[in-house]
Amino acid sequence: MAQQATETEFTLDTAAELAGAEQGRETIRGRSPWYLAWRRLRRNYVAFAFLGVFVLVLVACGLAPVYASHVAHTGPNSNHVLEQVKVNGHLTSVVSAGGLIDKKTGKSCSVSGPGCVLISAIPIGPTWFSGGGRYVLGGDSNGRDVAVRLLYGGRNSLIVGIGSTAICIFFAIILALLSGYFGGWIDFVITRFFDLFYAFPVVLLGIALGSALAINGFHHFGVNIESGSIWIPTLVISYVLIPYIGRPLRGLVLSLREKEFVEAAISQGASPLRVMFSELLPNITSSVLVFFTLIIANNIVLEAALSFLGAGVQPPTASWGTLISDGQNLIVTRPWLALAPGIAIVLTVLSLNVFGDGLRDALDPRAKVKIEH
Amino acid sequence: MNRRHTRKWLFTAASLAVGLALIASACGSSGNKTNTSGSGGTTSGGTASGGKTFANFRLAYDTGIDYLDPGLSYTVEGWGIMWNVYLPLVGYKHAGGPDGATIVPYLAKDLPKVSADAKTYNFTLRSGLKYSDGTPVKASDFAATIERDFKVDSPGVGFFGNIVGADTFGKTKTGHISGITTDDKTGSITVKLNSPQGDFLNILATEFAALVPADSPAKDQSTTPMPSTGPYMIKSYAPNKKAIVVRNPNFDASQFDGNVPSGNPDMMTVDIIGDDTVALQRVISGQDDYDFHQLPPDRLASTQQKYGDQIKVYTPANTYYFFMNVRVAPFDNLKVRQAVNYAINREALVRIYGGLAQPTENVLPPTYPQYKKLNMYPYDLAKAKKLIQESGQAGAEVTVWNHDRGTDPKATAYLTDVLNSIGLKAKEKVINSAVYWTTVGNQATKAQIGFADWFQDYPHPLDWFDVLLNGDRITETHNNNYANFDDKAVNAKIESLKKEPALTDSVNADWASVDKMVDEQAPWAAFMNRQFTDFFNADMDLSCYVNHVLYQFDFQSICKK
Predict the structure, then answer these.
(1) In A75-183, which residue ranges form alpha helices assigned H by DSSP?
(2) CA B462 from chain center: how many Å?
(3) Buried (b) or exposed (e) across B22-36, using 16+ Cβ within 10 A?
(4) Would B453 disulfide with which of A49, A343, A354, B320, CB 3.0-4.6 Å?
(5) Residue B54, beta-bridge partner list
(6) Do residues B558 and B540 make contact, with C-beta atoms less than 8 angstroms apart?
(7) What is the DSSP letter of A280?
(8) Nearest to B526 by CA among B439, B441, B451
(9) Which of B300, B348, B416 sits opposite A118 (nearest CB)?
(10) Closest Cα to residue B207, out of B160, B163, B140?
(11) Cα–Cα distance for residue pair B65/B69, rounded to 1 Å
């Protein structure tokens, strides 16, 4: 590498080698910022451990179809209300009978009376490993296997979280570069656009858009997205968060815009596009990467909130938010219905946040990246 | 009308557009024998309270109050309060069980005299009646009340479309309805109909016909309550927070021949609580006396165990069903509709609702005397699959509609799975409950199949078949016949039964045959009659509890230990 540099261009590495050679010392090798970041990151064992947790979650959710077909033997939306499963050798109803039950006969009473008791139909609780792989985390009111839905729900939550982050960051970068580089009326228009979004709380705006699009979907500008599609919450979340990423990135671009290397590029005749994408963009990449991890976690939580409120992923499609919503009515008798997706969200978000913090420390220890809304 | 899920029933434009070709003769429905299975049965009528009065009855209500204006409210929550506040000329007996369906004179001296052609109703107002503000009740207030309904775009105006001149007044909203004539001196009120209408007395017993002063503003008066004629008056109402109902100082129960009791609580404090569990906890802890909410399934067992004596379970007249739009493929095919009926396991759906329901495939609820249990479609998945294959609709794409409140979405989650299992390609579409009924009731939506339920507006089969399944009453918007069911034989039978003056045994048998005719054509997959709970704190004496056939728990009847 050093030899190649000698032949082609004069770099710091080459200079260090020449100096070292003159003084008879061992060469001090220059390191790229990415290498230095990687070196800092790999020494952060906590961040790596949590990255491992996130990878585990990813793999588990990715293997949902395998678990569903080979272990639980049911799909995420398959109802088994009246079925029975063997738990520890005993047949157990997936959803127990309920209603007004005659104490003596066990049959249903048509009217309430002293001989009748009121019993609620309750789904099966966690069988753990005594149900032959079925209903490991229990069932829901429709007799659906919660473990299967948890894994499928995780897939959907991660798809929405990662997908919306990618879309959001893509548009935020474009707007930040345009705004920060050109300034003037372009900056004015874009920042007012950001202000407009800031005026609405994220969750409320998400609910409004999600609810509106849930009825008829999105059919404009040649784009057709059916209601109930997972693209709806993905796009809604990415849309409402653009200013929250765009504004700090614009700030970065504004400061970089005044740096000498940008002026040098401009003076050498570089076009605005070249300056934006070859000079400015590489210099905000570290911040973008940090944002990416933190925003995924943020978006998973936002998706869960919207789905919980009925404005995100639509039933019967599972997501961690819809699973918590399904489970809230049985929190006393069947807490695992809500706890399991809750724990999954906590693990995923925690792992992404800790890893994101580690990444930030590695890429730019002085950076103060945070998301506020 | 729907209980726990606020829903405005829109006869309004629907009925007006169709023009209400209602035919029948007079004196309709005093012979109804609708029954509730609640523990009601105690009559709390009478003019005195028998020394059972107490200071304040505190209700943990739900958020379903739409209005506290009798011209606008169309929910059980609203009517439950206003039943004892704003009185119509005639109303239902304050009694539990079948007696509650008996129509008795309220503000009118007697039940109306009906002309031989059954098109003219003559009432005479009781003398000496006063509103809660002390002003006298006048016969002309009745005409003004019905006209006000039209002016405020009441959801109930469709009920009055058969009154001569009502259609014209509805369009112009000027002048008066020519078919209503009144004389303030004699207290005489005459209502002329375009054609005989068997359930007209039931309609006059609705809150839409409850008298308010003629000078009442033609806009929502929920928060500025109008003077009332009943034993109570609304003192204040803060939407989604609280309503306070107090005694009407000018009410004299002795004027009503025992038909309108004065009530036991001196005051009712209606605390509006959004969450079922919070409402339950408030009653358990003594902050409220009564929980209007359905008990949360999660808490049923523990509540039953600790407070079993304080729970009342009852079955209001209701039917939960999946409608299948016969105008839209694949449900334009009878075999597909029958397949759906065979494929759903009604017992499973009952369990999904926590077990508090009875499976059914009838349109009419079992509380009706016209009810004759049907069992045409026992659960048979293989037969359902076969029917789908025979229909040639295997693989057809189907969108299952539902709203997003309560347990109902779970029912369509089940249905979607069932439809997929019999060879259709189903997906679910769950939308906000605020727009659901108008969306599926709009022909432009072309909703293929979806969830619906119906709670009676009044105890008469016409409230079911005529409103929900008469093909002659299908409208472009605000359509209640979500299945667009339009069967000539059924329509003709409904029209013919409208003419029957009384619900005799043979008429009841005919209504039962309509139920069967509908089931054969399978525009619905009816699946259950739901049960509900009333829960009281330990201070309340439930020996006074009355569950009414239409208004459910009669708040004024309750007493304290």
Answers:
(1) 146-182
(2) 12
(3) bbbbbbbbbbbbbbb
(4) B320
(5) B265
(6) yes
(7) I
(8) B451
(9) B300
(10) B160
(11) 10
Cα–Cα distances in angstroms (integers) from residue A200 to residues A1, B286, B487, in the given order: 53, 40, 51
The residue among B36, B298, B398 with the most chain A CBs within 10 A of its CB, best to mutate, is B298
CA distances from B331 to A229, B44, B342, B450 (A): 24, 48, 14, 12
Chain B interface, best mutation among A78, A112, A229, A334, by max B CB count within 10 A: A112
State whether B430 and A331 contact (CB < 8 Å): no
Question: How many Cα atoms are found within 13 Å in the side-chain-facing hemisphere of A346?
Answer: 7
Q: Is B165 left (phi over 0), alpha (psi -120 to 50) or beta?
A: left
Residue A165 tokens read as 């982050």
DSSP secondary structure string for all residues of A315-347: TTS--HHHHHHHHGGGTTT-THHHHHHHHHHHH
A69 Cβ under 8 Å from any chain B Cβ: no
Mutate to test the interface with B, among A100, A103, A120 (most CBs of B within 10 A): A120
Contact B220, B151 (CB under 8 A): no
Question: What are the phi and psi torsion angles at B429 (to 5°)?
Answer: -130, 105
Number of Cβ within 10 Å of residue B326's Cβ equals: 21
- DSSP-derived secondary structure for A191-256: HHHHHHHHTS-HHHHHHHHHHHHHHH-EEETTEEE-TT-THHHHHHHHHHHHHHHHHHHHHHHHHH
If you search the block for the tokens 């079993």, which residue do you land on?
B308
Residues shown for chain A: 373
Helix (H, G, I), strand (E, B) or coil at A34: helix
State CA A31 to chain mean position distance.
Answer: 33
The pair of structure tokens assigned to B414 is 């089940």
pLDDT in 10s for each residue of chain B, 561 residues: 543 333 333 333 333 333 333 333 333 333 332 333 333 333 333 434 456 899 999 999 988 888 999 999 988 889 999 999 999 999 999 998 888 989 999 999 999 999 988 899 999 999 999 999 999 999 999 999 999 999 998 888 888 989 999 999 999 999 999 999 999 999 999 999 998 888 899 999 999 999 999 999 999 999 999 999 999 999 999 998 999 999 999 999 999 999 999 999 999 999 999 888 999 999 999 999 999 998 888 888 888 888 988 999 888 999 999 999 999 999 999 999 999 999 999 999 999 998 889 999 999 999 888 999 999 999 999 999 999 999 999 999 999 999 887 889 999 999 999 999 999 999 998 887 778 888 899 999 999 999 999 998 888 999 999 989 999 989 888 788 999 999 999 999 998 898 787 788 999 999 999 999 999 999 999 999 999 999 999 999 999 999 998 899 999 999 998
Euclidean distance between CA atoms A184 and A168, whole angstroms: 24
Indicate if the alpha-carbon torsion angle B389, B395, B397, B403 is positive or negative: positive
pLDDT per position as a tens digit, A307-324: 888 788 888 889 999 999
Render pLDDT for B172-202 as a digit per residue (tens, 0 to 9). 999 999 999 999 999 999 999 998 888 899 9
Query: What ipTM did this prediction achieve?
Result: 0.81
Residue A319 to residues A149, A327, A345, B21, B415, Cα–Cα distance (Å) = 8, 12, 10, 50, 20
Chain A residues within an 8 Å CB radius of B296: 329
Q: Which two three-digit tokens encode residue B179?
A: 């078919």
What does the alpha-carbon distance between residue A50 and residue A294 come to, in Å, rounded to a whole number? Answer: 13
Residue B548 bridge partners (DSSP): B552
* Angle, CA B293 vertex, CA B92 and CA A340 arms, to 5°: 155
Chain B residues with CB-CB distance to A118 below 8 A = 300-301, 304, 308, 311, 313, 356, 533
Instruction: Please report which residue ranges of B255-354 form alpha helices under DSSP H.
Output: 276-284, 297-307, 334-343, 346-352
